[in-house]
Write a structure and sequence with these properties.
Layout: E1 5-8, H1 13-24, E2 30-33, H2 38-45, E3 55-57, E4 62-64, H3 66-76, H4 89-118, H5 124-128, H6 133-153, H7 158-178, H8 193-206, H9 221-230, H10 234-246
Parallel strand pairs: 1-2
Antiparallel strand pairs: 1-3, 3-4
């Protein structure tokens, strides 16, 4: 099979989840960044009815969504000592589903309700990263329209940010409770897809220096104040430690 291509937004925590899994398991792939807005035509041209990223495309390979990509990566990783399999698949799936469908969504809504409305200039460089210059130009010229579409599509606003912040805190309480027994991992005795998924989706709050994009992220003062408040939480400390140990 030809080398598969992973298409991502550089800023996306869901894209980071898939990218990290491929990196950790030693999967050889090519990385392509896409611009928001034009990515819709791109994904539809490849037969996807949903326009979300990440997607992984190869010869006979067309996968969309970080969890499906991890499923494939676990089944197709080269013969190394590394694995992301878990000894409790049901428990792992339950945690990952909640992270994907609740925590990750609310972190995104919380963050974008601040930056895309009040500070859109801080986030465009993250979406522009590693794009070819024609896409960068399109992104710059269409940025206000793209922001409007994202605000509408993700239901963003001041009230929504307050609501999502409360949900994020509830979910942080939940992840804190998963770590209350003092174990290094969420499920089992070694790093699994559960830990990688949780750390990737918590990364926008922890801002670990090993993240491939977030060290360059400009965080507005309002969001920075919340992040500073959450830094002492076990879940945030754990996320930074998982990145330090396993995201090289």
């Amino acid at each position: 099979m030809n080398t598969p291509i992973l298409y991502v937004f550089a800023i996306s925590h869901y894209c980071e989840k898939a990218r990290w899994a491929l990196d950790y398991l030693g999967i050889v792939y090519r990385l392509h960044h896409l611009a928001p807005g034009p990515h819709i035509k791109f994904t539809r041209a490849r037969g996807f009815s949903d326009c979300t990223l990440p997607i992984l495309v190869g010869d006979d390979l067309r996968l969309q969504g970080s969890s499906r990509i991890i499923d494939w990566a676990i089944d197709n990783c080269p013969g190394t000592a590394r694995s992301l399999a878990t000894n409790d698949p049901q428990r792992s799936a339950e945690i990952e589903q909640r992270l994907d469908e609740r925590f990750g969504v609310q972190v995104r809504r919380y963050y974008y309700s601040d930056v895309l409305i009040a500070h859109p200039e801080t986030v465009r460089p993250m979406f522009s990263r590693d794009l070819p210059w024609p896409q960068k130009l399109v992104l710059r010229l269409a940025w206000s329209k793209i922001c409007d579409a994202m605000i509408k599509g993700m239901d963003l606003g001041a009230a929504q940010r307050r609501e999502s912040r409360q949900i994020v805190e509830t979910e942080l309480d939940w992840v804190d409770s998963l770590l209350a027994d003092g174990g290094r991992f969420l499920v089992g005795e070694q790093l699994s897809r559960t830990d990688l998924s949780a750390a990737a989706l918590l990364a926008p709050l922890a801002l670990p220096p090993e993240h491939p994009t977030y060290p360059r992220l400009q965080v507005p003062a309002s969001t920075a104040a919340d992040l500073a408040e959450w830094q002492s939480r076990p879940s945030i400390k754990w996320t930074r430690e998982i990145y330090r140990r396993y995201r090289q």
